[in-house]
Every structure is written in C-alpha cells, then in structure tokens.
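lol so apparently i was supposed to do this last week
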Amino acid sequence: SAPRTVLLTGAAGGVGTLMRELLPPYGYELRPLDVVPVQGAPDAIVADLADRTALREAVRGVDAVVHLAGISLEADFEKIMAANIAGTYNLYEAAREEGVRRVVLASSNHAVGFTRRPHEGEPLVPVDTPHRPDTFYGLSKCFGEDLAQLYWDLHGVETVSVRIGSCFPEPTSVRMLSMWLSPADCARLLHASLTAGSVGHTVVYGSSANTRAWWDLSTARALGFDPQDDSEPYAEKLIADKGLPAEGSADDLYVGGHFCVNPPRWPH
Ligand code: 15L
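anyway here it is w/ D-galactaro-1,5-lactone bound
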C-alpha cells in the first residue's frame, strides 16, 4: 500500500523547507526532523544523526524515510564523516531495526562530479556511470549509494538514490540550466520514488525536463516521474548576464562544475 507517514530528515534545510510545503498535498503526513529547530513546525524532532536512540524513535511507525539531512556542501573530512557517512549509517540502522521498508536518499550530482559533461550531440550521462566524486561531500554521497545497495542486498531495505542536480526556486547560473530540479518537479520525483512498485536499490538523476539537460532521466521516468518544468525560459537572461563557460573551464568540462576546482564550503 502507498506510504502515508514519512520521516523527513533535514526538514529545516533548503530542499527540506520546500518539500514541507509541496509533499503534503500528495497525501503524506510528514514527520519533520532536523538538527536545528524547524521554523513553523514546533512538533518537529530536533535530533543529531549521531543520536541513534533518537533516530530509532524517529523512524518508529513511519512507512518511509526521505533522507535529506547532512552537510550539503564541501567541508572538512571529519565533519563530512560524522554527519553524512556515520549519520547515514545510523539512519539506515534505525530503519532496519524498526522495519522501515523504503528510504528515498538525497544523493547528488557531485557523486559523479568529475564525469565529463556532454556537449551538444553527445550522449547523456547514464546512471551506471562510475562514481567519480568531486569533493569529500560527493564522496559521502557515493558512500550513501553503496550503503543503500548493501542494505537492499543484505537486509531488504529498499532505496531510491536521487542524484539531485540543483533544487532551488529558480536557476541562478548557466550550469543550473542543465542541472535545475524545480521544487515542483522535486516533489513529483520524491512522490514517484515513494510510490513506485519494487525498486530494490534504484539510482535516478533528479532534474527537470531541461532543454540543456546532461542527464539520462530514464530510470526516474521508469518510476513514474514525469517532469513538467524546463529551465529554458531563464536561459537568455542568464547567458546574457553571466556568459557561457569558457572553453576548458571546470563548468565547461565537468558535471560538478566549480565544485571540481573551487567547491563552496559549508559555513559551520
Ligand atoms: C549540491 O549537491 C549542493 O547540495 C547544492 O547546494 C548545489 O550546490 C548543487 O549540488 C549543485 O550542484 O548546484
């Protein structure tokens, strides 16, 4: 039966805040969790991913987990290890112990960030391209995907790993014309990931139906995802304002763009 009660980790973050608005209309009852208090959600669980007792309580009785929590940019390895590597392990252990059947995992384009980006006429990047992280952050997403595979093979916990492109209200760079996942399409993709029949461990790219897409969306579409947005209406102005990436620059060469040479740093 379709999942109804869903633990949403990282509920105070960028994507989490958008999804708290956009997922309930699909019929979900969200149980928000974050390491900081969640604005406008006084009942949200405030817990660190290091707190295994709290995580076990948090997953108890939910039908599925949408795991967005963790550090979302590059940081010192120790911080990435605690939040994204050990934290994701702790969450999966809690899910296994409490019999949660499915996790939707926020992976990232940065798990394959050093992959060459296709130019016009070249084939799209397939989901089975080898892991090629561009940062410790991207490496932690590779770990999450492999952990998900292990928990499926060993324990029968299902996961859809979503390699999210750039999920913001609007694209704000030329690179995002290719990577943009509109918030509405993100909700569509999470809904498809939560409701599709047997998924085992499935990896999908998360972007809208962008004219300039680099991704192969076929595995996402196979789950029932039908993206409705396209960044193209933003293209003319963004290109006029910022210019196309210089030939041979990171944005020109790699999926991960500037993360490959000058990754933005987590503030804390
Ligand atoms: C990510 O994985 C980051 O979490 C997000 O902040 C964006 O920078 C995005 O990738 C991106 O590549 O645009």
